């Protein structure tokens, strides 16, 4: 008897495996205090150092709620990866910047992420990978369109 498949379940299980694998690799490299989400935020901040970044920018970029972003940033600050300082134009806005500690480890964590990405795609042809990306984009667009009707 063939097992019934559900796209949401399959995507969720794959997401869990990817996060677990990436976190295990960071642990082995000595960056065990970083979650998958936190390392993504650090990478984003490193690639956008030339412009001011605020919490609302991260919420939008990663499509996360304010409370989630707050938790990620609090942990990054507590572990010495970021600082938050009042913006010169609006003291209510807190500019987020990476510390030297974060900058020193970001390249290693990013390299590991690229190695992981290559591993995940290793057994897919270019055509299969393109098809997968197109299908995932279509699924996301369908959900976004439906959310607008709720």
Secondary-structure map:
Layout: H1 7-28, H2 36-47, H3 55-62, H4 66-78, E1 82-86, E2 94-98, H5 100-121, H6 126-149
Antiparallel strand pairs: 1-2
Helix pairs in contact: 1-5, 2-5, 3-4
Describe the structure.
Helix content is 67%, strand content 7%. It is mainly alpha-helical and 150 residues long. It has one domain (7-149): Arc Repressor Mutant, subunit A (Orthogonal Bundle). It has a two-stranded antiparallel ribbon with strand order 1-2. α1 (7-28) packs across α5, α2 (36-47) packs across α5 and α3 crosses α4. It is globular. The termini are far apart. The model has no long low-confidence stretch (mean pLDDT 91).
Distinctive features:
Arc Repressor Mutant, subunit A; single chain; 7% strand; 6 helices; mainly alpha; two-stranded antiparallel sheet; 2 strands; globular; 150 residues
């Amino acid at each position: 008897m063939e097992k019934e498949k559900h796209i949401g379940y399959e995507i969720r299980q794959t997401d869990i495996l990817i996060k677990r694998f990436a976190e295990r690799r960071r642990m082995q490299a000595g960056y065990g205090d970083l979650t998958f989400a936190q390392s993504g935020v650090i990478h984003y901040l490193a690639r956008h150092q030339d412009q001011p970044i605020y919490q609302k920018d991260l919420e939008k970029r990663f499509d996360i709620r304010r409370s989630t972003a707050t938790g990620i940033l609090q942990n990054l600050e507590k572990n010495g990866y970021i600082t938050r300082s009042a913006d010169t134009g609006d003291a209510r806005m807190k500019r987020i910047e990476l510390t030297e500690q974060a900058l020193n480890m970001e390249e290693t964590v990013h390299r590991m992420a690229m190695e992981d990405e290559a591993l995940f795609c290793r057994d897919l042809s270019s055509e299969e990978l393109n098809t997968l990306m197109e299908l995932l984009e279509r699924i996301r667009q369908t959900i976004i369109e439906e959310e607008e009707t709720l």
